Amino acid sequence: MTSPLSASPADARPIDINAWIGAYPFREVPHPDPDVLVRVLDREGFSGAWVGHLPGAFHRDPEPSNRALYAAVAPYRAVLHPAPIVRPDWPQWERTLATAKSEGAPAVRVYPAQCGMGPGHSGLAELMLACGESGIALHITVRFEDLRQRHAMDSAGDVPAATLRALARLSGSRGHLVVAGAGRELLEETHWGLTPDEQARVWYDFGWIWGPPEDHFEHLVRTVGAARLAWSSWWPLRLAQQARALVDLLPQPLRDRTPDSAFADGRSIALSALTAASS
C-alpha cells in the first residue's frame, strides 16, 4: 500500500493531517467525496491528506466505517491516506489496528468524547502504547464544530486537556499524538503541562487558532513553535483555506523566519512515528 512517506517524494507540499470523506449527521456538508477532496487538496497547496470517514465517528461499531473508508480511497491512494477509527473499548480492537498498519495508514483516529472515554480510561492508554509500538500516530479530534454551531443532539462535548496530557505522559510510550480542533487555550493547557520530551511527541493542527486581530496564531508560533503546529484543511467541515491564510497573515519578519516547511505535516509526523517505533 502507498504510504505518505513514499507518495510523490518530489512533491514538497505539505500533507494535510485532518480531512474527512462521508456525510455529517448534523448538517449538510459540501461535496464530502474522495474525488472532490483530491481536487481541493491540489487547489489549496496540499500534496495529500490523512483521511477519516466522518459518519463513523458517531457509530458504535467502527468496522463498517473503516471498510467504507478503505474502499473509497483505494483509487486515490497516491494522495489520500486512510486514518481509520479504533475503539479501544471494542472487542478485537487490536485486529483493527493491525489492519490499519497493513493498509499503510499513517494514523488511526479515536473519538474519546463520542465514546465516553475520560482521562483515566485504560483503553486509551493501551491504544496509545500500541500505536507507539506500531509506528502509527494516534489522532484525536477535540471537537467537530464550535459550541455555538452545534446541533442540540450533538451533546458529546469537547475532549479536555487532561485526556491529552494523560496520553502524552504515559511512561515508556513512543506514541505520537496528533490533536485536531484545539484552540489556543486548550493547546497551551496541554503543551505547558508536559515535559520537553513529552511535548516533542504531540502535534496540533492549527485550523481552529485565531489569527488577526487576536493574533493567537502568531503568539503560538513564537512560544510553542511552528514545529508543534501541523497543516490541515478540515475539509469538509471548515474552510480549507484557513491554515494557509493564518500563515500568510503572520507579521513579515516572523514569516521570513518561518517558512512553510517549519510547520509539521503528515509526512514529517509519520516519519517521526516510524523512526520512534524502530528505535
Can you characterise this structure?
The chain has helices at residues 34-43, 63-73, 93-102, 112-115, 122-134, 161-168, 184-191, 196-199, 216-223, 242-248, 252-257, 266-278; strands at residues 15-21, 48-53, 80-82, 107-110, 137-141, 177-180, 202-205, 229-230. It has 279 residues and is of the alpha/beta class. It has a single domain (15-278), classed as Alpha-Beta Barrel (TIM Barrel), CATH 3.20.20. The mean pLDDT is 94.
What topology emerges from the helices and strands here?
Blueprint: E1 15-21, H1 34-43, E2 48-53, H2 63-73, E3 80-82, H3 93-102, E4 107-110, H4 112-115, H5 122-134, E5 137-141, H6 161-168, E6 177-180, H7 184-191, H8 196-199, E7 202-205, H9 216-223, E8 229-230, H10 242-248, H11 252-257, H12 266-278
Parallel strand pairs: 1-2, 2-3, 4-5, 5-6, 6-7, 7-8
Helix pairs in contact: 3-5, 6-7
Question: Number of DSSP helices?
Answer: 12
Net shape: globular
Number of self-contained structural domains: 1
Structural class: alpha/beta
Distance between the termini: 23 Å
- Largest sheet strand order: 4-5-6-7-8
CATH topology category name: TIM Barrel
**Helix residue percentage:** 25-40%
Give a quick precis of the structure.
The chain has 279 residues and is of the alpha/beta class. It has twelve helices and eight strands.
Key terms:
279 residues; TIM Barrel; 12 helices; globular; five-stranded parallel β-sheet; 37% helix; alpha/beta; 8 strands; three-stranded parallel β-sheet; single chain
